[in-house]
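Below is one protein, fold included:
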Amino acid sequence: MKKAILFGASGFVGGYLLHDLLHSNNYEEVRVVVRKPLEIQHSKLKTIIADYETLPQHQNELTADDVFIALGTTKKKTPDEKIYYQIDHDYPVLAAQLTKAKGAKSVFLVSAVGANINSSIFYVRTKGEAERDIISVDFEHTHIFQPSMIMGSRAESRPMEKVFIGIFSVINLLLVGKLNKYKGISAQNIAKAMFAAAQRPAEKVTFYHWKEMQQLLH
């Protein structure tokens, strides 16, 4: 059986992913790196209390086969671009570097559709730079998940997001052919796709859009 490390376990996708990892017979241990303890008890769960600043102090604890990174913020929650970049780029890259140095074989990153290092849009460029720099860490296998609108009900209140999710429920029907990568997908299904990808043979670097994630669910 394998060991997993999950960054972002308290987040939307990360919460579902943690559930799948803990309830799988494929993993004997699941380590989560969080800023405060989760309200979850499980025999396989090991909690590491750390953040971007303190993570290097915990490197000896960052041992696993598979590394799942579901970190991220929003412009509303983090208006300061410097802090935003630290959360969406610096922290995922650091997590990848430290876990790879401790022997991790595969990394699974939640990014975003259209991520592009040459984009003039800060959010899109940041995601592109995170992808580029994690790929350069050179894991045996790097999996990049690029969802569009992440559907589902969050614990926190995001009124405008609920409006967009409603719109996407209709737009999804129109996004066919090459446009299907822009279809919305639930956080639960992103997590299930990430989990499924970890159980299958893979290329050195693999990108997953809506279609590829859907295929992993079957």
